[in-house]
Specification:
The complex is a heterodimer of chains A (108) and B (119).
Chain A: E1 3-6, E2 9-12, E3 18-24, E4 32-37, E5 44-48, E6 52-53, E7 61-66, E8 69-74, E9 84-91, E10 96-99, E11 103-107
Parallel strand pairs in A: 2-11
Antiparallel strand pairs in A: 1-3, 3-8, 4-5, 4-9, 5-6, 7-8, 9-10, 9-11
Chain B: E1 3-8, E2 11-13, E3 18-25, E4 33-40, E5 44-52, E6 57-59, E7 67-72, E8 77-82, E9 91-98, E10 106-109, E11 113-118
Parallel strand pairs in B: 2-11
Antiparallel strand pairs in B: 1-3, 3-8, 4-5, 4-9, 5-6, 7-8, 9-10, 9-11
Classes of the chains: A mainly beta (108), B mainly beta (119).
């Protein structure tokens, strides 16, 4: 299964609302995960099961979708949100994890 | 709070062996799978393989012949070996815990180990 993220980069301002998309090459139910990666830091888990917020993640982050199309939305962008975002899926047979190529969110 | 602290070889030459270790603090290895991943400019984030606390392993099919994953429950540590190295193995390597939540996300990550391979 391949994951394709769009756009590859996006410029926005503090306070904006942004939406990223992740498309799977075949239906994966709701087994989609989102991470945030800030420069010099390990990726941070944001959302699992397509829409469940990981403990401690601000409520301005939300995820939706099922099947082949998934979105990550950030409401009211904060300065610390400018980072790269990745989607991820785990195949069961055989076990394998796939990542999208990432969407970089830059300050406008 | 679970913390993963990793260390290992940094500057290596082609055909040599990479060895990395990841210590789990604030939690036990038991009951979880533990993964290794890497990020390189050319390939983005790539999953390398995973190992359970009892030593059951799953590898990325592209690395099966070169990758070894090990667990030392007495030390609460994981380790990785990759050999023989090529320049394409230059990357930032991470260890991470695999959660049992939907999608099997990586919920705790090490700080990363930078590996550079040259000829």
């Amino acid at each position: 299964i391949q994951l394709t993220q769009s756009p590859s980069s996006l410029a926005a301002s503090v306070g904006d609302r942004v939406t990223f998309t992740c498309r799977a090459s075949q239906a994966i139910g709701n087994t989609l995960v989102w991470y945030q990666e800030r420069p010099g830091k390990a990726p941070k888990l944001l959302i699992y099961g397509a829409s469940t917020l990981q403990d401690g993640v601000p409520s301005r982050f939300s995820g939706s979708g099922s099947g082949t199309v998934f979105t990550l939305t950030i409401n009211s962008l904060q300065p610390e949100d400018f980072a790269t975002y990745y989607c991820q899926h785990r195949s069961n047979y055989p076990p394998n994890y796939t990542f999208g190529q990432g969407t970089t969110l830059d300050i406008k | 709070q679970v913390q993963l602290h990793q260390w290992g070889s940094g500057l290596l030459k082609t055909s040599e062996t990479l060895s990395l270790t990841c210590a789990v603090r604030g939690g036990s290895l038991s009951g979880y799978y533990w993964s290794w991943l890497r990020k390189s400019p050319g390939k983005g984030l790539e999953w390398l393989g995973e190992i359970s606390h009892s030593g059951v392993t799953n590898y990325n099919p592209s690395l099966t012949s070169r990758l070894g994953l090990f667990v030392d429950t007495s030390k609460n540590q994981l380790s990785l070996t990759l050999t023989p190295l090529t320049a394409a193995d230059t990357a930032l390597y991470y260890c991470a815990r695999v959660s049992y939540n939907n999608g099997r996300p990586f919920d705790f990550w090490g700080q990363g180990s930078l590996v550079s391979v040259s000829s």
